[in-house]
Design a protein that fits this description.
The structure holds two protein chains of two kinds. Chain A is elongated, with a radius of gyration of 19 Å. Chain A contains eight helices and no strands. Chain A has two domains: 1-99, RNA polymerase sigma factor, region 2, helix turn helix motif (Rna Polymerase Sigma Factor, Chain: A, Orthogonal Bundle); 104-197, Winged helix-like DNA-binding domain superfamily/Winged helix DNA-binding domain (Arc Repressor Mutant, subunit A, Orthogonal Bundle), CATH 1.10.10.10. Chain A is an all-alpha fold. The longest helix of chain A is centred in the last third of the chain and has 23 residues, at 173-195. Chain B is α+β, with helices and mostly antiparallel strands. Chain B folds into two domains: 2-43, no CATH class; 101-236, no CATH class. In chain B, 28% of the residues lie in helices and 33% in strands. In chain B, the strands form two sheets. In chain B, strands 1, 2, 3, 4, 5, 6, 7, 9 and 10 form a nine-stranded mixed sheet that branches. In chain B, strands 8-11 form a two-stranded antiparallel sheet. In chain B, strand 9 (214-216) and strand 10 (222-224) form a beta hairpin. Classes of the chains: A mainly alpha, B alpha+beta. Chains A and B meet through helix 2, helix 3, helix 4, helix 5 and helix 6 of A and helix 1, helix 2 and strand 11 of B.
């Protein structure tokens, strides 16, 4: 999933101006360009639950329509939408009272064959070799705080540069880099812990 | 080494987090819904979606129906002669909202938190977090949060937050209105405990209920009586 190439600034300005005027063509353009990316971004943050994703994606686009007049053009439209979506995901977890945790699929760790990590790599090489180990990785990810998961997804799945992630997450670039370092470290520790069974 | 780590993480996450496809029905349904919202918003740009005015409209419609029934239908039914009869048409409508509130500018200052006493018998201490005034439009904060400020304070247990609230400026039916603030102790005080832990960011979100906070008195005055709740969340410090 890569962020859509934001076209030239004038075109993005036209798109937002169109939204402000209530132009459905502008809405259609925005929707075609960003719907799939926003959907995947949210889907991967909420434990791949389509029902929850649909609610949050709807809230995201409604918020975009309502706040188009406040968009100052200081960031790309995609960055702005990603930021709204990430805030909506955070709101969702806050409402659920289970901040920083998502509803990971049930994985019975004792059912997973435990093999020692012997290859010396950052992550065990045998990971992803089977559905069980895939679930193990999912569980390791689910143990991460929400902001760790968000920064990993934005950086490595959506492949958004750190400068834009800092706008989306409203943190300094230095803070995002620190967050990435800690997120990678926690992921590695969780995997090692689960792998040792 | 960092490049290598990056590649490893990327490989792992790309395997786990696949792009997801929404159902075509949802995609189409949502687009239609958004189109309707966009059109409605353009048609009445200053009418916020507030439940209360609509409710009043429905109540007004019901009262109108009852009055029509009492003064028009009842005499017709009880009248023995119908030779000189006319037609009664009954309609329903949702009257426009009595008031359209488009701005509620709130200014708060001198935000303080109360640190519980660490020694039994002592009273604890009020600590100022933000002294200067901070202004915001409550209606622009629906679903979003605005950061007012932050301060590093001593780790410990805190039990209350208080602040001064200046008279509120609102725009009602397109007109500027000054709303006096009604607070029992002259300040907004919220009792709610939270802990400050080392290397942890604690976030206090003061969640105002805009609709219930603005009160229309019988004398035609408008007052601001804040209805708030405190939400406490924590996050590991990022720097």
């Amino acid at each position: 999933m890569e962020m859509a190439n934001a076209d030239s600034q004038p075109e993005e300005t036209k798109l937002i101006n169109g939204l402000r005027r209530g132009d459905t063509f502008a809405l259609e353009l925005l929707y075609q360009r960003y719907f799939d990316q926003i959907y995947s971004l949210v889907f991967n943050q909420v434990g791949r639950n389509h029902s929850i994703t649909e609610d949050i994606v709807q809230e995201t686009f409604l918020a975009a329509i309502n706040s188009a007049s406040n968009f100052r053009g200081q960031s790309k439209v995609g960055t702005w939408l990603y930021s709204i979506a990430c805030h909506k995901v955070t709101d969702y977890y806050r409402r659920q009272g289970r901040e920083a945790k998502y509803n990971a699929r049930n994985v019975n760790v004792s059912d997973i064959e435990a093999n020692p990590n012997t290859d010396g790599k950052l992550f065990p090489a045998r990971l992803l070799e089977s559905e069980e180990t895939r679930q193990l990785v999912e569980q390791a990810l689910s143990r991460l705080p929400l902001d760790y998961r968000q920064v990993l997804i934005l950086k490595y799945v959506a492949e958004i540069p750190v400068a834009e992630i800092s706008e989306i997450m409203e943190r300094s670039q230095k803070s995002v880099e620190g967050l990435l370092t800690r997120a990678r470290k926690s992921l590695r520790e969780n995997l090692a812990e689960l792998d040792e069974g | 080494m960092n490049d290598y780590k990056d590649q490893e993480v990327r490989r792992l996450l790309k395997e786990i987090y696949k792009p997801a496809d929404a159902s075509p029905e949802f995609k189409e349904k949502l687009f239609n819904h958004l189109s309707e919202k966009l059109s409605a918003q353009t048609a009445s740009p200053t009418r916020p979606s507030r439940a209360k005015p609509r409710l009043w409209g429905i109540v007004a419609a019901i009262i109108a129906l009852v009055l029509i029934g009492y003064f028009v239908l009842l005499p017709l039914i009880s009248s023995p002669t119908t030779a000189n009869a006319g037609t009664l048409e009954i309609r329903v409508t949702d009257a426009p909202p009595e008031r359209v509130v488009s701005v509620i500018d709130v200014t708060i200052s001198n935000i303080q938190v109360h640190q519980a006493a660490t020694v039994e018998g002592e009273e604890g201490e009020w600590i100022t977090i933000i002294e200067d005034a901070r202004a915001f439009d409550l209606l622009q904060l629906s679903g979003v949060e605005e950061i007012l400020g932050e301060k590093e304070i001593e780790a410990g247990h805190y039990t209350q937050i208080r602040m001064d609230v200046a008279p509120v400026h609102a725009v009602i039916d397109g007109e500027d209105v000054a709303a006096g603030v009604v607070l029992p102790s002259g300040e907004l005080k919220i009792v709610g405990s939270f802990d400050i832990e080392p290397d942890t960011r604690t976030i206090l979100t003061i969640d105002f209920d805009a609709e219930d906070s603005l009160v229309f008195t019988g004398e035609g005055k408008v007052i601001f009586k804040p209805v708030v709740k405190l939400i406490v969340t924590t996050a590991e410090e990022s720097t």
